[in-house]
């Protein structure tokens, strides 16, 4: 069961088709598993169509956004638990990744980065994408170095789970971190934790010794 979700603005941008391809992919994979967020996107798309029909030249101000979200949550047509469109079959979610990566998650040419962490940079699969797109694998029971972020990092858990000071993030959970977040993820469970991350800037190692490696991190 997913417990960590994209925020309302990200879902609204997704429903409007305004997200970059990698960001949209993260949310699409999350939506395939999360009926709660699918319900919200369905409601947003319905309300968006009504707004465009009756007020085609009105921009989405902060007040209007709040009004839309209030209608999504409390209006008479608000989606009720279980009313969202059914999730695609699991194999379809895997097909999206298989087509993109050309192999299963555990069969990719991983490169050891530091300690228990391996990475695979897939930015080249998203032409003209200004941010870095990487897969990260944290070995089962392993720990990532303590770090913070120089920019924003959007992450989706593809396999396994990890825990940090904010809680436990399971498969298909969604998390956004920035310069205010310092953490040391630990893989929990009996399998490697694999994530898909979009980074606007390199991470910044903050450990006593690992911080010496910062000049070599891109």
- Average pLDDT rating: 79
Domain tally: 2
CATH architecture assignment name of the largest domain: Sandwich
Order of helices and strands: HHHHHEEEEEEEEEEE
Structural class: alpha+beta
Helix content: 25-40%
Task: Give the full name of the CATH homologous superfamily of the largest domain.
Answer: Jelly Rolls
Keywords:
218 residues; alpha+beta; Arc Repressor Mutant, subunit A; Jelly Rolls; 5 helices; 11 strands; disordered C terminus; ChrR-like_cupin_dom; Anti-sigma factor
Describe the structure.
The structure is a single chain. This protein has 5 helices and 11 strands. The protein has 218 residues and is an alpha+beta fold. The protein folds into 2 domains: 8-88, Arc Repressor Mutant, subunit A (Orthogonal Bundle); 103-216, Sandwich (Jelly Rolls), CATH 2.60.120. Mean pLDDT is 79; it is low at 76-83 and 207-217. The strands form 3 sheets. The protein has a 6-stranded antiparallel sheet with strand order 1-2-3-10-5-8, covered by helices on one side. The protein is globular. The chain has helices at 8-15, 21-33, 35-54, 62-74, 90-101, and strands at 111-114, 117-121, 132-138, 147-149, 153-159, 161-164, 167-169, 174-177, 186-188, 193-199, 203-205. This is Anti-sigma factor.
């Amino acid at each position: 069961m997913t417990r960590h979700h994209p925020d309302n603005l990200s879902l609204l941008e997704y429903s409007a088709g305004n997200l970059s391809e990698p960001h949209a992919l993260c949310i699409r994979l999350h939506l395939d598993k999360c009926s709660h967020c699918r319900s919200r996107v369905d409601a947003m798309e319905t309300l968006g169509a009504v707004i465009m029909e009756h007020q085609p030249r009105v921009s989405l101000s902060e007040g209007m956004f709040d009004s839309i979200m209030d209608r999504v949550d409390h209006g008479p047509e608000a989606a009720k638990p279980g009313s969202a469109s059914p999730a695609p079959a699991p194999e379809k979610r895997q097909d999206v990744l298989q087509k993109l990566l050309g192999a299963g998650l555990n069969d990719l040419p991983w490169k050891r980065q530091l300690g228990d962490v391996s990475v695979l940079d897939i930015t080249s699969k998203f032409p003209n994408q200004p941010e870095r797109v990487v897969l990260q694998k944290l070995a089962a029971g392993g720990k990532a170095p303590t770090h913070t972020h120089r920019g924003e990092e959007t992450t989706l858990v593809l396999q396994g789970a990890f825990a940090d000071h904010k809680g436990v993030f399971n498969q298909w959970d969604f998390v956004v971190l920035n310069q205010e977040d310092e953490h040391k993820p630990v893989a929990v469970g009996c399998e490697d934790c694999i994530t898909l991350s979009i980074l606007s800037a390199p991470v910044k190692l903050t450990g006593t010794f690992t911080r010496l490696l910062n000049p070599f991190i891109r």
